[in-house]
Design a protein that fits this description.
The complex is a heterodimer of chains A (218) and B (511). With 218 residues, chain A is α/β, with parallel strands linked by helices. Chain A contains 5 helices and 6 strands; from the N terminus they run E-H-E-E-H-E-H-E-H-E-H. Chain A has a single domain, classed as P-loop containing nucleotide triphosphate hydrolases (Rossmann fold, 3-Layer(aba) Sandwich). Chain B contains 23 helices and no strands. The longest helix of chain B is centred in the N-terminal third of the chain and has 44 residues. Classes of the chains: A alpha/beta (218), B mainly alpha (511). Chain A: This is Ras-related protein Rab-21.
Chain lengths: 218, 511
């Protein structure tokens, strides 16, 4: 849903942040948007909706990052959040095998609901805890390749890999948007975004997962 | 012969088919039995008469208004000698009188009877500040005026925009039997085509287009509110009632069960919760989708403040959503489903896709979806407990009193921030029973019977006191009739009061 005249194009992208509680979604995005980690001086009010303005190869990009509730009990609400999003960042904790399984579930869902229009990033966070790694690099990267996603390793604590992650994602989303424009013609008309009412679809009765979706369980 | 058979088959007399005016052509029941020509003549006549009447009324009101202005101006001139004040007044007046023909021109393009009325209202508006008519009418008329004022700043394109919006509005208002779907479709198509048009008009300044589109949305939704909010053709109302009942049934859900990081024992936090509840309820009273969204955002901001206060760190979505669900449950906002549908249908689509308002609106949709589908598993409760709570036979704060540490209390493991609050806050009701038995089974049985006993006692007590009051009343009617009775001094022995029960003694309650 890029908008604006053809000359000075401003892209607006919506990116959803998915991941189990406690994998560090919030830290990741706070680090990126405000360069803060575990900030005890509470100047940041919220980390659930953040925006960032970028300039990539002369093109202006407005990034809106939507945090989502990661608790298991809210899993069925996913589609409401990632409707019409251009990109998704799926975060797992490299020390937690379960959180990687969750990422796989989300990928499956996203592909089913949004097809290939959405740029996916799978992010292994907490690489500062390399010693306690439970998800192997080969497995994660292999999986990402198999579903057409990119894989990144980050550490919000050490501020590693985060800039690259977002920059890469923006470039990919721009490519998608441009390709779409070419497809539509001169790109004179702005996208007519789907505007149907909210729908919740969870036709897949998920296996009764063990309780403990609460973030204190991690 | 054949024509005779035909007549018999449809059983309609020939005279019923011809035009009632007797012009010889066939009439049509849709035109009150007239033929098309006679109907048009008739209708035109009535219509132009109506327009004329309206115009006359408008002119009369305008004259009155001007007279009022003139007298006001004179007073201003005589009372305050400051001449520039008078000049300013004069300027305003001349601007006003100049604006009148413009308004007329705007409305002159079509000849619908309502137009004249609109113009009238727009003109009389300055002295109608005492809100003469019903509120909504005044509001939508003000909207028209505001809209025209706004479009004037756009010069010529403004006039085009107004003409488009105006005719669109009337075309929609005319089609009363449109279903919600078609209504949405046509309004969204209109937004789309208008914004396309504006995008070519104001190339390279999307901000400007956005401002215009906001005004267009405001104008249209204010005028079509009755028709578009909770339309009759949809089942919105039924769903409203369903969600309302659902929320009422879930009254027992606490912050702890939801793991919402809101510690209401901190006064500042409970304050923000109250503010959030107020805002989400207030949302219903707004008529423009954008205003409704603004209230949702305000509500969300209050919640975020509360979460941050409790957790002492920035609120993430993991914290925010449960807290929002809690607030929605506490508030039980009126016509929740209708409001959400209204916003989704008639808001400019771009606003819901991106932007902060869109984010919080999405969260509200999530909260509602969660509440609708909520079950024992999603609250980490055992199905038995859930059933018990839902049927109102027990409530979590009772069962979780001291001495009970079964499965359900372990489910109370709150979010990190909620833990200090523990089982504290919701205990107040349970605490009133000092004789709380220790055995869980006994307690449950007791707690099941106690309300029953309480109820019986209460109704007996009520009956007694009502009897008492009635006895007292029987003596009453005499006193108003004896109008000449001297005013009784409060503390004197009064014969009339003998039948009344003795005054209440404070000691009775102390025991």
């Amino acid at each position: 849903m890029a908008a604006g005249g053809p000359g000075s194009k401003t892209y607006s992208f919506k990116v959803v942040l998915l991941g189990e509680g406690c994998v560090g979604k919030t830290s990741l995005v706070l680090r990126y948007c405000e360069n803060k980690f575990n900030d005890k001086h509470i100047t940041t009010l919220q980390a659930s909706f953040l925006t960032k303005k970028l300039n990539i190869t002369g093109k202006r990009v407005n990034l809106a990052i939507w945090d989502t509730a990661g608790q298991e009990r809210f899993h069925a609400l996913g589609p409401i959040y990632y409707r019409d999003s251009n990109g998704a960042i799926l975060v797992y904790d490299i020390t937690d095998e379960d959180s990687f399984q969750k990422v796989k579930n989300w990928v499956k869902e996203l592909r089913k609901m949004l097809g290939n229009e959405i740029s996916l990033c799978i992010v292994g966070n907490k690489i500062d805890l390399e010693k306690e790694r439970h998800v192997s690099v080969e497995e994660a990267e292999g999986y990402a390749d198999s579903v057409g996603a990119k894989h990144y390793h980050t550490s919000a604590k050490l501020n590693k890999g985060i800039e690259e992650l977002f920059l890469d994602l923006c470039k990919r989303m721009m490519e998608t948007a441009q390709a779409e424009e070419r497809l539509r013609g001169n790109g004179a008309s702005t996208a007519a975004p789907g505007r149907r009412g909210v729908q919740i679809i969870d036709d897949e009765p998920r296996a009764a997962t063990a309780a403990g979706g609460c973030c204190s369980s991690g | 012969m054949s024509s005779h058979a035909e007549h018999r088959r449809i059983r309609v007399d020939h005279s019923a088919l011809v035009c009632k005016k007797g012009c010889g052509y066939f009439g049509n029941p849709a035109w009150q039995g007239l033929c098309s020509k006679c109907w048009r003549e008739d209708n035109q006549h009535a219509r132009s008469k109506q327009v004329e009447e309206d115009r006359a009324l408008a002119e009369r009101l305008q004259r009155e208004e001007e007279a009022a202005y003139a007298s006001g101006q004179q007073r201003a001139l005589s009372e305050a000698s400051a001449t520039h004040l008078g000049k300013a007044e004069e300027k305003r007046m001349s601007q006003k009188s100049r604006s009148v023909p413009t308004v007329k021109k705007f409305f002159g393009s079509s000849s619908k009877p309502t137009l004249g009325r609109d113009a009238t209202a727009a003109q009389t508006k300055p002295d109608a500040s005492g809100s003469l008519g019903p509120q909504p009418v005044v509001e939508s008329d003000q909207a028209t005026k505001h809209f025209i004022d706004f479009l004037k700043t756009l010069q010529k394109p403004g006039r085009d925009i107004f003409r488009q919006c105006h005719s669109f509005r009337h075309s929609v208002a005319y089609k009363k039997d449109l279903g919600a779907e078609e209504l949405t479709e046509s309004i969204q198509d209109f937004y789309q085509s208008l914004s396309d048009h504006l995008n070519t008009l104001y190339k390279g300044t999307p901000e400007r287009v956005e401002v215009v589109m906001d005004e267009v949305e405001k104008y249209l939704t204010l005028h079509l509110y009755e028709q578009t909010f909770c339309p009759e053709s949809s089942d919105d109302e039924v769903k409203d009632l369903a969600i309302q009942k659902r929320i009422r049934d879930l009254h027992w859900v606490t912050v702890q069960i939801l793991c919402a990081p809101l510690n209401e024992e901190i006064p500042a936090v409970s304050d923000t919760v109250v503010k959030a509840i107020t805002d989400i309820i207030e949302m219903d009273s707004r008529r423009v989708p954008r205003d409704k969204l603004r209230y949702i955002t305000r509500c969300s901001k209050h919640i975020i403040h509360g979460v941050r206060r409790t957790k002492r760190e920035a609120a993430s979505a993991d914290d925010f959503l449960p807290a929002l669900i809690y607030v929605v449950l506490k508030a039980n906002p009126p016509r929740l489903h209708s409001n959400i549908q209204y916003i989704t249908r008639f808001s400019n689509p771009g606003r819901l896709m991106s932007g902060e308002d869109g984010y919080y609106f999405t969260n509200l949709c999530c909260a509602v979806a969660f509440i609708e589908k909520l079950d024992a598993e999603s609250l980490n409760l055992s199905p038995e407990d859930f059933e018990l709570y839902m049927s109102g036979q027990a409530s979590p704060d009772r069962l979780l009193g001291p001495g009970r540490s079964s499965s359900s209390s372990s489910s109370l493991r709150g979010g990190p921030g909620a833990e200090p609050a523990g089982a504290g806050a919701p205990q107040t009701r349970g605490r009133r029973d000092p004789d709380l038995p220790t055995g869980p089974g006994v307690q449950q049985e007791q707690s099941l019977h106690r309300p029953e006993r309480d109820l019986i006692e209460w109704s007996d007590g009520m009956e007694r006191s009502v009897q008492d009051v009635l006895e007292g009343l029987q003596l009453e009617p005499r006193s108003p009739e004896t109008g000449s009775q001297p005013p009784s001094t409060i503390d004197s022995e009064n014969a009339d009061c003998e039948g009344l029960p003795p005054p209440l003694q404070p000691q009775v309650f102390a025991g």
